[in-house]
Amino acid sequence: MYTIITGVNGFIGSNLLVRLKNSEIITVSRKDPKNLALFRGKKEVSYRELQNHEVKLVHLATYFSKEQKDIEKIKSANIDYGVNLLDVVANLNIKKIIYTNTMYNYYEDDSIRELYYTKTKNEFSNIISDFSRSRNVAYDEIFLDNTFGLSDKRKKIIPIIANHIKNSLGNPIQNSKNNINLMHVNDVVERIKISIDNDLNYLTSFVGRKSINLTSIYLFLNNFFNGNQTVDSPLLYVDNNYLDGSPEINYLNIDVEGIEKKLIEYIELWK
């Protein structure tokens, strides 16, 4: 059994590789959406070499941007790449497909749901799920929200907050009422590994039980970064506000102390 993984140079993909270090992994490399190559370690392998093996496909590759100028990049990464990938693997003995989608589809904020990024993730969801059904292949679609972890340097809100704290740039949160549903990458990777290890079908959200006020995260991390651990600035937890109709939720089994500890570990690395 081989597991084909896209997006291994990304945040979640690179962490998944570490978790699966003793498994038979095939990674996908691309110069452009139509030029895909498969690698086992550093050695390129042909698709024919995999035809006599069962494979599972984990499609993590994506491109996120809110910028109008990046529309072509978003479409290329989130739709075109995936379509060509399915064409390439169509003749393999696929046992399961795992695809990571976004909870942006279920935000109450219209501007988030209407992002071109959100629309492309949803469009390819229809394509890849149809592909799975037409071949009677087990399918797991995991809707994720905001992730973070020790190696996270992306242009995401937790690294942005950490960068502002390190460089004394002040609070980057413009709206004090904004909240975030936060999950650690290790938990996401574990959820994906569980799916790889079975042949069951899923369609689930994978989020924390509570969202956290962003300003409270900034104050909490700022105090620890500057050695003011005794200052009372707890994280402010609020109920999730996803729209009705969101996929069945698999809540992360993480208590308050757990997420606070992981945030502290993260900000310590910025010192």
Account of the 3D structure:
It is a single chain. This protein has 271 residues and is α/β, with parallel strands linked by helices. The protein has a single domain (2-268), classed as NAD(P)-binding Rossmann-like Domain (Rossmann fold, 3-Layer(aba) Sandwich), CATH 3.40.50.720. It is built from eight helices and 14 strands. The chain has helices at 11-19, 71-89, 110-113, 116-134, 157-166, 185-196, 214-225, 256-268, and strands at 2-6, 25-32, 35-40, 43-45, 54-59, 93-102, 138-144, 146-148, 179-180, 182-184, 202-207, 210-213, 237-239, 248-251. The chain has a nine-stranded mixed beta sheet, sandwiched between helices. The protein has a three-stranded antiparallel beta sheet with strand order 9-12-13. Helix 1 (11-19) packs across helix 6 (185-196) and helix 5 runs parallel beside helix 7 (214-225). The termini are far apart.
